[in-house]
Amino acid sequence: MTTSTRGSSSQRNTALPAVLVLEDGRTFRGRAYGAVGETFGEAVFSTGMTGYQETLTDPSYDRQIVVATAPQIGNTGWNDEDDESGRIWVSGYVVRDPARVPSNWRAKRSLDDELVAQGVVGISGIDTRALTRHLRERGSMRAGIFSGEAVAPEAELVERVQAQPQMKGASLYEEVATKKAYVVPAVGEKRFTVAAIDLGIKGMTPHRMAERGIEVHVLPATATAEDVYAVGPDGVFFSNGPGDPATADGPVALMSAVLERRTPLFGICFGNQILGRALGFGTYKLKYGHRGINQPVQDRTTGKVEVTAHNHGFAVDAPLDKVSETKFGRAEVSHVCLNDDVVEGLQLLDQPAFSVQYHPEAAAGPHDAAYLFDRFVSLMEGQRA
């Protein structure tokens, strides 16, 4: 997908007309929401009823137009504490019924105000249930939002949407990752050092590790093995991130180097797909993906079913019914989505490495999977012993 055209913060009028145009020609007419102008991205839907601030600032949503399936959005406004990164990453935002007045003691401004301030073009007043059903049936697809003077004849807008590149084959992780390494200090006594590869990391992730006495060195996506081991890590972490994992040859090579040294390893989301590729499995694009904070996943090592937070449009193609032999030893699928049997986790049986496809940092989302950070700590404890 191309970078969206940010709207004008000087133009703000919810009475202005707006139209959402899908690549298959389906259109939805509504009202301008947030900045006025035009934007392009992949239309996807997120099923979370809360946590829109964390969703909008999640780098994994880079170049995507997010459709909120919850009918009313914006009730809690926007605060200064819940951002998962330094900016809003979504290309556009689609809501049915925006809250007229935010009501929360932590709110500093309205969601609409923040969308305007950051130039994020949105649309409101459309039938988001019909749109979600359409995306479920036809799959996620390229789209555009046009408001104010950007509204033009539908045929022209459809052509412009169809001219955008597909998400499949898009390499996006480097553009959202930090360009400079930084350190998140351990909370309390320092117990371990972890090198975290930023492929689009959410702010809460290193915080969850820091809570467990881990000093986290967050490194750019372009980090080398020399960069990783220069910090003297007890473990290595690969983060979430946007785009097609088939383009991530650099991170795959780095993870392979870590696996060769048998350093304890943990991956989340994009990191799970990177581990899959390093082990020799393929990846593929899901029809409409998993996005939201209410996805059921079973931990096959314990049998426990967890309610989990997801944001992924790609998945690992690994066998569910057997242990696989890889160049790094035996591997198996550790977690699976109960909705559609998509691989949601991998683990190596002969060395300390595992990953999950979802977001155990719970920002926003349930806390069912917080134990995975403790599992990572246990791997580092075992390696040290």
- Name the beta content range: 25-35%
Q: How many E-type strands?
A: 20
Order of helices and strands: EEEHEEEEHEHEHHEEHEHEHEHEEEEEEH
Q: Largest sheet, if any?
A: 11 strands, mixed
Please state the average pLDDT score: 95
Shape: globular
Straight-line N-to-C gap: 47 Å
Helix content: 10-25%
Helix run count: 10
Low-confidence segments, ≥5 residues, pLDDT <50? none
- Derived from helix and strand composition plus strand pairing, the structural class reads alpha/beta
Integer-rounded radius of gyration: 21 Å
List the helices and strands and how they pair.
Layout: E1 17-22, E2 27-34, E3 38-46, H1 52-56, E4 64-68, E5 72-73, E6 92-94, E7 97-98, H2 111-117, E8 121-124, H3 128-138, E9 141-147, H4 154-162, H5 173-176, E10 182-184, E11 192-197, H6 204-210, E12 214-219, H7 225-230, E13 235-238, H8 249-260, E14 265-268, H9 270-278, E15 282-299, E16 305-317, E17 324-326, E18 329-337, E19 343-348, E20 353-356, H10 371-384
Parallel strand pairs: 3-4, 4-6, 5-7, 6-8, 11-12, 11-13, 13-14, 14-20
Antiparallel strand pairs: 1-2, 1-9, 2-8, 3-9, 10-12, 15-16, 15-18, 17-18, 18-19, 19-20
